[in-house]
Amino acid sequence: MAELDFGIMDGFADVAKYPIAADGYEQHLRDAVRAEALGYRYYFFIEHQNSPGALVTAPSVYLAALARETSSLRFGPMVYQLPMHHPIRLAQDAAMVDQLSRGRLEFGAGYGIYAHEFLRWQLSFPERRAMGEELMAILLKAWTEDTVSYQGEYWTFDEALPNPKPFQRPHPPVWIGAHSFVSFDYAARHNFHVGQNIDVDDVMGEKFAYFRQKWQEEGHGGAMPRALVARHVHVAETDEQARTEAEPQLLKGYFGDGTARQVIAATRIGWGGDARGTGGERTAEIDSRGRVFQETTKSYDFWIDNGLALVGSPETVVGHLRDQQERVGYDVFLAQHRIADMPREQWQKSLELFAKEVIPALS
Length: 363
Hints:
This protein is α/β, with parallel strands linked by helices. The protein has 13 helices and twelve strands.
C-alpha cells in the first residue's frame, strides 16, 4: 500500500450563522491550529462565488491569516475558481501567501460547476475551461519569468512585472480538481497532481487509473503526481454511536439544510436556466454528479456502500480506509469531519479520534 498522508477538508457554511463573520473565521483558524497539533498534514477548502453557503470568497486573504497562525500545516483551496480571477493578481496573491507561509501553499486549480455563479458576474459558463487553462498558462509564466507578455483570447499583457515570486521553486505544487476525463488529460499533460471529492469509489478508481496511464504516456521524469480524495468522516467510540450521530447529518446531503439553495432559487437569475445549475450542459460527469447529490439525501447506505462517507469506530474506519485506498488508488486523504449541522462536540471528538487512533494505524 502506498504511503498515505492525511488532511482536513474544511467547510465554511456555518460562518453565515455567526452574528459577526469575524467570529466564524476566527473559530475556523483555531480549528486549523488544533488539526495541525493533532498531526494532520494538509488543510483544504473550496472556493465558490455568489453562494450564501460558501464564505471563503477571497481564499488568499484567509490563507494569509492561516499562514500566520500555523507553522507546519500545508494548505490551499481545493480549488481556486480560476475564471473568477485576474491571472497576474492571482499569481501575486498566491506567491505572497507562499512567502508568508515559507513554502506551505498547495495551489488547487479548477473552473466551477454552477452556471449561476458565472452569470452573476457576466462571465461565460461554457468558456470556463478555456479561460481556466489560459489563466494557468499566464500564472505559471508569472511565477517563473521576470516579465510576462501574453496575447490570449481572454487576457493580454505587455511586459508585466509580477512580484513576488513564490517561496517554493519553481512554484507551489499544483492540484487539478478533476472530475472529467478532459481534466485528467490536462493534469497528466502538465504533470499536475489531481484531487476528487464527489465520484463514488468505483468511478474514482477508474479515473485515477486512467490518469496514471495518461501520465506515463506523457513521458514525464521524476515521481508520479499525487492523487487526493476528500470524504465525509465520522468516528465515535462504537460503530453504533458513530452511525447514530452521523446518519441524520449525512441525509441532509452535500448541501446541508438547503437554506443556501433556497436563497439562490429565490433570486431572479436562480440556478442559471435549469434546476441542475449547469446551464443546460449534459455530460456523463454531470449526470453522475447529479445522481450522487440526489441519492445522498435518500440513503445512508448509499453514502457508506460507495465510500462517500467513512463512519464507525476507529478500528472500523481504519479497515474502510485500507480497503478504499487499495481499490481507488490515492495517497492523500482529506477527512471532512464537520458534517452539515452536527454538534460541535461530536465532530471535534471525531477529529481527535481519527488523529489519535486512525492516522497512527495507517502511517
